[in-house]
Amino acid sequence: MARALILAAGRGERLRPLTDATPKPLLRAGGKPLIEWMVERLVAGGFRELVVNHAHLGARIEAALGDGARFGARIRYSPESPALETAGGIARALPLLGEAPFVVVSGDIHTDFDFATLAPRIEAIANDPAAQVAHFVLVDNPPWHAGGDMALAQGRVRLEGPRLTYGNIAVFHPGPFHEITEGTRLKLFPWMYRFVSEGRVTGERYDGPWDNVGTAEQLAALDRRLSG
């Protein structure tokens, strides 16, 4: 069964003081913690083996989600102290993720993305990682990130061209992360751009509902939309 890692180790500096006593993924919108929305979306998409990494107030996240049984999932945890950023966090969680390709998603986004559609991407990466080592879900550039991150052409992610924003949803083969020494603090980008330059990262554009909650204003706006 394919596994998914929910990234929940961020400090949420821009959301302070809300995140001083509450980890960012447990902030509520529409009457529910952000990370619970994500767990439910993953389970609906067929992902029931979940790993959650955490750092700041991580015990609160474990207490909130438990073993995952109430969601129809099994949840295991990858604690970090200090937080290791995205690539470092993935490398730390590898023993729980196994040797098959896995999904990685941020615990502070809200989206209606259908995770079941990633099944053929997982299979393609598993069958030929030399040709394809990752798959990124990209979204239209939000106002707060108008310059975007990377381009998409003929189903492949590119560094040149009209830019879209990385949607914090991806499939990865574990191979590249074995290169990272466990405990290393490392961001996903620009480290991952090496594989983009090699033409080994596919991508898709998702134009459905997608919110990246980074400020109190964004959280309030999402809460109003989900509660309306």
Structural shape: globular
Number of strands: 13
The overall number of domains is 1
The stretches of 5 or more residues where confidence is low (pLDDT under 50) are: none
**CATH fold-level topology:** Spore Coat Polysaccharide Biosynthesis Protein SpsA, Chain A
Keywords:
two-stranded antiparallel ribbon, 27% helix, 228 residues, nine-stranded mixed beta sheet, alpha/beta, 27% strand, Spore Coat Polysaccharide Biosynthesis Protein SpsA, Chain A, single chain
Could you characterize the architecture of this molecule?
With about 230 residues, the protein is of the alpha/beta class. The chain has one domain: Spore Coat Polysaccharide Biosynthesis Protein SpsA, Chain A, CATH 3.90.550. It is about 25% helix and about 25% strand. The chain has helices spanning about 20, 35-45, 60-65, 85-95, 120-125, 195, 215-225, and strands at about 5-10, 30, 30-35, 50-55, 75-80, 100-105, 110, 135-140, 150-155, 155-160, 165-170, 200-205, 210. The strands form three sheets. Strands 1, 4, 5, 6, 8, 9, 10, 11 and 12 form a nine-stranded mixed beta sheet that branches. The N and C termini lie far apart (about 35 Å). The mean pLDDT is about 95.
Short description:
The protein is of the alpha/beta class. Helices cover 27% and strands 27% of the residues. A hairpin with a 2-residue loop joins strand 2 and strand 3.
Q: How are the elements arranged and paired?
A:
Elements: E1 3-8, H1 18-21, E2 28-29, E3 32-33, H2 34-44, E4 49-54, H3 58-65, E5 74-79, H4 85-97, E6 102-106, E7 109-111, H5 119-127, E8 134-139, E9 150-153, E10 156-158, E11 163-172, H6 193-197, E12 201-206, E13 210-212, H7 216-227
Parallel strand pairs: 1-4, 1-6, 4-5, 8-12
Antiparallel strand pairs: 2-3, 6-11, 7-13, 8-11, 9-10, 9-11
